[in-house]
Amino acid sequence: MKRRIMKCIAEGGRKILGLLYPHTCPLCGKTTAEEICGACADKLLFIAEPRCMKCGKPIRSDEEEYCYDCAHRQHEYERGYGMWVHQGDVQASVYRFKYQNRRIYSEFYAKMLAEQYGSAVRRWKICLIIPIPLYRKRRRQRGYNQSELVAKKLGKILDIPVDSKNLRRVRNTNPQKKMNARGRRTNLRNAFRVRDGFAPVQSVLLIDDIYTTGNTIDCAARELKKAGVQKVYFLTISIGQGY
Prior knowledge:
Elements: H1 2-20, H2 38-43, H3 68-71, E1 79-85, H4 88-99, H5 105-124, E2 128-131, H6 136-142, H7 146-158, E3 167-169, H8 181-188, E4 192-194, E5 203-211, H9 215-226, E6 231-239
Parallel strand pairs: 1-6, 2-5, 5-6
Antiparallel strand pairs: 3-4
Helix pairs in contact: 5-7
């Protein structure tokens, strides 16, 4: 009897919360009873072939192997993918996730990453998932690390351990979005450090929200490899165009 009463109270609480805070589509932000509203589901396009064989950005032709960036520079990581091109509703969604406390979006993003790239993660034989860290001051201001939220939920879905402690951001870097390629590289120089005592593994999966030129992933991958990690891959929610 007591268990039944507690269950009824819990269900009632969920209904009240649903009325006070109705579920909204993680892409357009409109109220919906579904995980994602019908309009967004109809127009949501995951990145498909042809795409860059290194970073996974969409490219124009099957005859091309790499996007412009990857064709003109060496990366520290092995390979990676982004789910969606960073524009329109996707760009707005990631903005709300990062800056408007829409932490709940992490569940949707992690589920989509697992569905789209779970087979790739298994093929890469990932031993450990590591989110790209925030500088401590920025994390205090925001209240959370958006990449860590996604990483933890993805790790739970794929049954892979998550380490959010051993890779640290030790410099308070400036936002990358308004910088050119050289400025991005300079901005991130020596920005990450791996803690002493970190036990290296064969392969690591880095999780971040956005991939543009790859400088953030490269800098993190470089430090992990210095610490003994053999291979580094990445997944992101969104990614720039490859042309």
